[in-house]
Write a structure and sequence with these properties.
Elements lengths: L6 E3 L2 E3 L7 E3 L3 E3 L7 E8 L4 E3 L4 E9 L5 E6 L11 E4 L8 E8 L4 E3 L3 E6 L11
Parallel strand pairs: 6-12
Antiparallel strand pairs: 1-4, 2-3, 5-7, 7-9, 8-10, 10-11, 10-12
């Protein structure tokens, strides 16, 4: 739901009656209010945030509590640059400089919430993924 989804709603249905086959409920006013944001979490593909040099990486954000309109911003620790403003961040052709901790900030105009950091490691040709023994 968004704040602009506030409206008056009713339903209409078939009621197998001799008077009228259709009946409509009384209207109900639905008002959407802003809610404090919380429980912002990140997920990553490929799993564990380990991606081969030159491959693609996708970070996704979920907000468990809160309503919008939501605005998003992606950041990497140590970099002041804004990396993206949508719920997903896609990095194509990852490079060594893409390794690091990523965070997501979400705002609904009433509050701001930030995710825990998500560690991303770009593996070079010589680096085995974690948990692999050669």
């Amino acid at each position: 739901l968004q704040l602009n989804d506030s409206s008056s709603c009713s339903c209409r249905g078939w009621v197998d009656s001799e008077v009228s086959p259709w009946a409509q409920s009384a209207p109900v006013t639905v008002t959407v209010h802003g809610v404090l944001l919380s429980e912002v979490s990140l997920s990553v593909q490929p799993p564990r945030g380990q991606v081969a040099l030159g491959d693609s990486l996708v970070l996704s954000c979920a907000v468990a509590v809160g309503r919008g309109p939501l605005s998003f911003s992606w950041h990497r620790e140590g970099s002041g640059a804004l990396l993206g403003t949508s719920p997903r961040l896609e990095l194509h052709h990852t490079g060594d400089n893409d390794s690091g901790q990523y965070r997501r900030r979400v705002s609904n105009g009433d509050s701001v919430a930030e995710s825990d950091p998500l560690n991303v490691t770009v593996l070079g040709e010589q680096d085995p993924p974690a948990g692999v023994t050669l």
